[in-house]
Each structure stands twice: as C-alpha cells, then as structure tokens.
Write a structure and sequence with these properties.
about 180 residues, alpha/beta, Nucleotidyltransferase, domain 5, five-stranded mixed β-sheet, 5 helices
C-alpha cells in the first residue's frame, strides 16, 4: 500500500542560511504552513552544522512532515569547495531527518526550476515570483532561500502527484 503524503518539508541547504518551507498537501492542493530560515550563528564549522541540525529538528518536531525534499549537491569546476561545504549542511539535514524517521528525497536544481518556471536555469527572482503565484501568496517570499525551499517542496508535490497518476512508485535517492 502506497503511503499518502500530507506534509512536505522542503529545504534549501546553506551553511549560513538554510531556507525551509512546509507544505500541507492533504487536500490535493499545496498550502503553505510555514516558511523561514535557519541561521547559523556559530563561528566554527562544527557549531554551524549543529545550528542547522537543531533548526531542522525543531521544524520536524513542529510539523511532523511525511517527507523531506532536498536540493541535490552540484559543483562548478572552478568552485569545488562550495560543494564540500554544502555537503556538511546536507549531512546535518539528512541526519535530523533520519533520526526522526522522515524520508529524504533529493532533486536537481534544474529539475526544481523547471517544475516551477518551465526553465531549468531560471534566476532566483523568477523562482520567487513563481512560488508566489503558485501558492497564491500575498507577498514575494523573502529571502530567496525561503522561495527556493518552498519550490523544492512543491517540486516533490508535483512529482509525487504525477507518479501517483502513472501508478508508479517514487524511488528516493537518499535512502
């Protein structure tokens, strides 16, 4: 029997600012429950990772998501250290989810952008506007990390909905 998802947590990982968005999809339509940022105030890498972990645990304990949708890592040839640092943030997020028994599913940034705008290389402001329109928000979601997190959750919602229509099972990439 296929699990019916009611709450999706989308996270845009970052070492300084991690965006999150929580969608209620129990009615078959996405409704924003909460969105915000987890800020790392620690001076050391270990302290920043702990801040991210603690913040994600708090969001999970508050909303009890059925799934956590996360942006996949990517790296530009000229900036490999960025991917390494993002890996630390993703590790903290994945650990928080695993310890709370929340499934993690990853999506490529281009997939998320294409789902929201029809273009895989859409700029941040276009993602913000698309999220605002799709969820009928009165204001543009700020900062862009929040819009990205909501877009990640919405991408999972549309993928899961399409997969259910096709009668196939979504295979998570991180679990």
């Amino acid at each position: 029997m296929e699990k019916v998802e009611k709450v999706i947590l989308g996270i845009d990982p970052g070492l300084n600012v991690t965006g999150y968005g929580v969608l209620d999809v129990s009615t078959g339509r996405a409704k924003l429950l909460e969105a915000g940022v987890i800020r790392s105030s620690g001076k050391t890498l270990a302290a920043r990772i702990k801040d991210i972990y603690d913040g994600v645990v708090e969001v999970i304990e508050t909303h009890h998501p059925d799934v956590l949708a996360l942006e996949e890592l990517y790296s530009l040839y000229k900036r490999p250290q960025t991917a390494i640092l993002m890996g630390h943030a993703r590790g903290a997020i994945c650990l928080a989810a695993e310890q709370s028994d929340v499934e993690v599913i990853s999506y490529a940034a281009t997939k998320i952008k294409k789902t929201m705008t029809g273009a895989g290389h859409a700029p941040k402001d276009q993602i913000q506007r698309a999220v605002q329109l799709e969820l009928r928000l009165p204001l543009l979601p700020e900062p862009p990390d929040v819009a990205d997190a909501i877009a990640i959750a919405f991408c999972h919602f549309t993928e899961a909905r399409q997969t259910q229509r096709l009668g196939t099972v979504l295979v998570p990439s991180d679990k």
